[in-house]
Amino acid sequence: MEALLSQFTLLSDQALQDKNFDPSTIEDLMKLFEIESYKAWAAMELEAEKEEEEAEDALQKAEDYLDSVMESAMDEFRSFELELEKMEKSELDSLVQTAESARKMGRLMEKAASVASKKYIEAALSSATASMKSAWKGLSSGKVHPS
């Protein structure tokens, strides 16, 4: 383009100095300017398309990376969720086992209390029976103990 500008300057100077100068020479040069401008425009267009493709590629890479990071985060979340569910199940099982043990212990204590109260009643009856027999013997033998 600089060469064309330099040639245009020379032809302009020549046109001012030479009365026999052919104006079509400048027209030919202007056509070269037009061709060169189209070439520059086409090159800029290609460069813009190339930059657009590069930007789209970079954007696609960023989206792929984001998808990868999100998928990784979701996998980690699912893993955490499974681990938490296992811990909850383990704790629930432990609580159920403790409750079952407490229920069994309560039943055993109830049976033990029932057996103990029956033994107490039997002992009390035996003692009362023995006292009554002793009192009956004392009455039967005619001995009365002074109070």
UniProtKB/TrEMBL annotation:
Coiled-coil residue spans: 41-90
Keywords assigned: Coiled coil
Protein name: Maternal effect embryo arrest 9
Organism the protein comes from: Acacia crassicarpa
